Amino acid sequence: MKHSPLVLSGMQPTNTLHLGNYLGALKNWVRMQDQMPCLFCVVDMHAITQDAGYAHAADLTRSTREVAAAYIAAGVDPKRTPIFNQGQVPEHGELAWVLNCVARLGWLDRMTQFKEKSGKHKERASVGLYTYPVLMAADILVYRATHVPVGEDQKQHLELARDIAAKFNNDFGAPDFFPQPEPVITGTATRVMSLRDGAKKMSKTDESDASRINLTDDADAIANKIKRAKTDPLPLPASKEELKDRPEAENLLNIYAALAGQDRDAVIAQFAGQQFSGFKTALADLTVSKLGPITAEMRRLLADPAEIDRILKNGADKARAIATPIMDEVKKRVGFII
Ligand code: TRP
Description:
By secondary structure, this protein is mostly helical. The chain contains 13 helices and 5 strands. α4 crosses α7 (127-141), α9 (219-228) runs antiparallel to α12 and α10 (247-260) packs across α11. The chain is globular, with a radius of gyration of 21 Å. The protein binds tryptophan. Tryptophan binds at residues 8-10, 12, 43, 46, 136, 139-140, 148, 150, 154.
């Protein structure tokens, strides 16, 4: 069986999204909507693999709405593309259980992200954190999604999803039951780095808020962070060769090129030999003009949480319409009475 193309991706509702999420992921998602049917979820079930508890519940709810608002504000159109939170589609959890019984301990033991996230005290990590990649496989396979836009750091999880799909197909005697989902690696062309350290990725978990431009920052905050961004004492380079070992300069030029929709070489030529102060003013203006409408739209959406909840519910209904028949077939294959 040939599976029809379907894109699925998701982001965790932890803290707020930043410029790296926009340039590295959301912008691509928006474009993909024109190429294939897409589903975009907010993975609230993944978010509770760390920091779960009633004390975190209100934050989780708020972040889930914020991420959904960011999807919409960036240009994902909920009329065309279902946007939903994972926790509202019970089939994710149902399939995850079955796939937990397909995946092998040895496969999960190799996952480098679990090793990083669990740190020195693996025995204190939740079981959910360990089996996180199996839930991710379920997110994808429960819709038979064929294309999965993810960052480089999720490649290993996607390979695991492919292995799990193949073993399910084999063990349950249905060679083409699940597709082999393809990673679509996003964010390599525009790796957005920290504004405080050009060697580190811009990250929502960095302690320094000055290291990132949040999608909830207002124009003043954006301009200030760019003006305070770390640079080196030299003027801007005149060629890409001169960018070598100048990660901060490279990052700011990359951000400029991505936001302006220009080739990086053209941006280098435009600012060659100039001081950072002038370039930073141009970059701050550009960032404010590109992100301003998105952050304003996010604020508008977030002022009406009930409307976001309706969009998520509606998206979940559409997602379930795809997932339920597939899950019914899974249950039959497994031998559950339905
Ligand atoms: N693990 C992904 C990340 O941290 C988020 C995610 C969960 C996801 N389920 C997914 C991404 C399914 C793509 C498809 O980025």
